[in-house]
């Protein structure tokens, strides 16, 4: 446990090392600030992103509650797949169905490869009876999106802080090299000249 504490003190710059330069102390301070920013601001920013994702997703779920499934009769056959993997391909084929108002609608409807003309397919339509092209959003999917938004935001924030840390270290290393060059120019000739 003691070596770990010593290593942590050295990483924080609190080990009282007399050889530590001001740039080293500044780098340690920046490192501590970035860790605190990640621990404090990271969850807040990620929580905000999750909340916004959840709010917009639930709004979309409420909007899509009026969607319902209808049955349409295909007016044309869907093409057969060219290869085995094409059997899962969705084709948009003209179909006819009855809208909630009672009139018939003719438009492209999603169907699987190889469906024959006259066959019945079920798909989702909105309140006006227009094909949506997808399933309605569910609360479970909103929860999954919220968790993904939280984690992705936290990861991106952490990566941004690592990039900032690397940039600060790069600038401080340039300053250290410049100071080292000045010191070497001042003291180097004394060590390298012959007596």
Notes on the protein architecture:
It is a single chain. The chain is of the alpha+beta class and 195 residues long. It has two domains: 23-66 and 136-184; 68-134, no CATH class. It contains three helices and four strands; from the N terminus they run H-H-E-E-E-E-H. It has helices at residues 2-12, 22-63, 139-192; strands spanning 68-74, 90-98, 104-112, 120-125. A four-stranded antiparallel beta sheet has the order 3-2-1-4, with no helix packed on it. The longest helix is centred in the C-terminal third of the chain and has 54 residues, at 139-192. It is elongated. It starts with a helix and ends with a helix. 10% of the residues are buried. The model has no long low-confidence stretch (mean pLDDT 86).
List the helices and strands and how they pair.
Layout: H1 2-12, H2 22-63, E1 68-74, E2 90-98, E3 104-112, E4 120-125, H3 139-192
Antiparallel strand pairs: 1-2, 1-4, 2-3
Helix pairs in contact: 2-3
Largest sheet: 4 strands, antiparallel
Can you list the strand order of the major beta sheet? 3-2-1-4
Extract low-pLDDT stretches. Answer: none
Which percent bin holds the helix content? 40-55%
Distance between the termini: 51 Å
Count of helix runs = 3
Structural class designation: alpha+beta
Number of strands: 4
Mean pLDDT, to the nearest integer, reads 86
Number of spatially distinct domains: 2
Query: Which H/E pattern describes the elements?
Result: HHEEEEH
The dominant shape is elongated
Beta-strand percent range: 15-25%
